[in-house]
Amino acid sequence: MNEANTHRLFERFDQLYRGRHLPDTQNLMCYGFSCEDGWFALIWEWSEQIEAYCQMHPDADDLMVVQVKQKLGELRFYTQPKIWDIEYLIEAARIRSLQTCELTGAPGALCQLPSEVGSYYQTLSISFI
């Protein structure tokens, strides 16, 4: 994700992404968001949902995002501690990412693309397929 969008997410959801200040042995958000900008809106929406959940559930106040990345064409969120209600929200975001182009945010589909070492997966809109 580009630096401007990363900064916007970190600034708006400072508490959720506070782990970015920790060493990479404790939290991988110091590397930012390991995906393209097409998922920015999806990450923003998910962050709003998690923030609202944490505000309504004081026992979730210590929740912290550990990593956000693309893996096998899907958007993945990793948090600590694990809270089942949050895991359901993560799963919903993962499913939506499979229908959203990682590059543009337009409707998309999971694609298997060739590479020099085999193949890789990415969710892309029809204009990139």
What's this model, at a glance?
With 129 residues, the chain is α+β, with helices and mostly antiparallel strands.
Topology, element by element:
Blueprint: H1 3-12, H2 40-56, E1 64-71, E2 74-80, H3 84-97, E3 109-115, E4 118-124
Antiparallel strand pairs: 1-2, 3-4
Helix pairs in contact: 2-3
Structural class: alpha+beta
Note the run of SSEs as H and E. HHEEHEE
User: Helicity, in percent?
Assistant: 25-40%
Low-confidence stretches: none
Protein architecture, described:
This protein is α+β, with helices and mostly antiparallel strands and 129 residues long. It is 32% helix and 22% strand. The chain has a two-stranded antiparallel sheet with strand order 1-2. Strand 3 and strand 4 form a beta hairpin.
